[in-house]
Amino acid sequence: MMKKWNNNLLFTAIAFVLFCSVFPSCTDDEEITQTPVMDEYMEIAREILQDSIVLNATAMMGTVNKTLLDEGCPLKYYFAWRTQDTLNIQIRNFSVGKMPVRIWFSVNVKFMKLNTWEKEEYGSEDSGWVKFKGINGVTTVNIITDEFEGGEGGAGTVTGYFNAKTMEIEFVTNFYVENMSADVYQQTIDPSRMATYDEDFAQYEADLIKYKEENGL
């Protein structure tokens, strides 16, 4: 009887852990993330994250970097504020390196405070870091190689962090298509890169050709 009771207790404990992993509202941290971001930080976010911004990103397919180069490629992100605290992020006609598709993507994100473990990594609220997250994005793809078998599109999410003091940003866009994502590693936003986008992308393509020659691709 005691062994059976212990097994039931163990099952209940595991079920609770799984439930809380699926429904994070079990934790106080989820409540923290839903609290509004400081008005000062939101004003800066609305000023900086607008129109078009060029960031370096890697096109990932699982753990494989389809951009081929470690530094990624210049990628245009399009920003538009739907409300005072809702930002729409888009990627248009994205296809570089060994990507088997062209991708269009759109999602609305909300800004929130960091939770406890995020503060350990990024610092306290005074550090300037805030989190932004969006679900139910829309991904549309055009297949350009036989390697791809994932259909014509799907959903998608964005999870990222923005520093209102240093203008740094990092985020991951999951396309939910063949485990593909666009990963923006931590970097400083430079609005002047829009003016040099064509030149920077040409340099990426030149570096890509060199990489393929050196690696027999």
Task: Report what the structure shows.
The protein has an eight-stranded antiparallel β-barrel with strand order 1-3-4-5-6-9-10-11. The protein has helices at residues 2-22, 28-33, 39-48, 116-122, 197-214; strands spanning 51-61, 64-65, 73-81, 86-94, 101-112, 129-134, 138-143, 153-154, 157-163, 168-174, 180-188. The protein is an alpha+beta fold and 217 residues long. Helices cover 29% and strands 37% of the residues.
Strand content: 35-45%
| General form | globular
What's the story with the biggest beta sheet? 8 strands, antiparallel, barrel
Which structural class fits the helix and strand makeup?
Answer: alpha+beta
Give me the Rg, rounded: 20 Å
The succession of helices and strands, N to C, reads HHHEEEEEHEEEEEEH
On the 0 to 100 scale, the average pLDDT is: 82
Give the strand tally.
Answer: 11
Discrete helix count: 5
Helicity, in percent? 25-40%
Parts with pLDDT < 50 across at least 5 consecutive residues: 1-33
Q: Write out the strand line-up for the largest beta sheet, numbering strands in chain order.
A: 1-3-4-5-6-9-10-11
Oligomer class: single chain
For the record, give the distance between the C-alpha atoms at the N and C termini, rounded to a whole number.
64 Å
